[in-house]
Amino acid sequence: MAGSGKVRVAVLISGRGSNMVALAEAARDPAYPAEIVLVLANDPQAEGLARADAMGVATRAIDHRAFPDRATFDAAIDAALREAQVDLVVLAGFMRILTPGFVEGWAGRMINIHPSLLPLFKGTHTHAQALAAGVRLHGCTVHFVVPELDAGPIVAQAAVPVHEGDDPDSLAARVIVQERRLYPAALALIAGGQARLEGDRVVIDRVPADGALFSL
């Protein structure tokens, strides 16, 4: 947290970076407790890199295809994060499975957003999974990252209704609106010290007045 006193955040992306943009926009507020110091992509053609650059955020591409295995790619990511003096890593549509060694190295300092109400519907195609299960509520979850995929202590969740006639695209559109609201709010709680890990649970000292971190 050199310089400004704000938590230094790197956002890892693979594509458009829609959640990254929401985070960067929130971080423009002088009162926001985190600053986005790096947007890093595993694909040099990721659209989010240009979007971050246009917002004045430092960017870097580390092409996973240039490395012989996941461990050496993760080592390059780790080195870039440490070079940028990053305090907290935020995964926002980062489509690479990280090695346990990398995850453990950033334990308690890395979060992810998943498009379901975990522990339901881990993995991919979460909206199709939700429709197939016939649930009436779906949503998104911000959680700390652990070696197990789509697990880890839950920070915050936002719920949306499932409508009759929904298909995966219409349901996804409803969820992404809440992702863009939830992720900046959850990051602010963590960076501001109001949400913290205690063992395998997250304790939150202050719940926003509109309850947005838990249900909509």
UniProtKB/TrEMBL annotation:
It catalyses: N(1)-(5-phospho-beta-D-ribosyl)glycinamide + (6R)-10-formyltetrahydrofolate = N(2)-formyl-N(1)-(5-phospho-beta-D-ribosyl)glycinamide + (6S)-5,6,7,8-tetrahydrofolate + H(+). One of its GO terms (molecular function) is phosphoribosylglycinamide formyltransferase activity. CDD domains: FMT_core_GART. Signal peptide: none annotated. The active site is at residue 114. The record marks 150 as: Raises pKa of active site His. Pathway: Purine metabolism; IMP biosynthesis via de novo pathway; N(2)-formyl-N(1)-(5-phospho-D-ribosyl)glycinamide from N(1)-(5-phospho-D-ribosyl)glycinamide (10-formyl THF route): step 1/1. Keywords: Purine biosynthesis, Transferase. PANTHER family: PHOSPHORIBOSYLGLYCINAMIDE FORMYLTRANSFERASE (PTHR43369:SF2). This is Phosphoribosylglycinamide formyltransferase. It comes from Methylobacterium aerolatum.
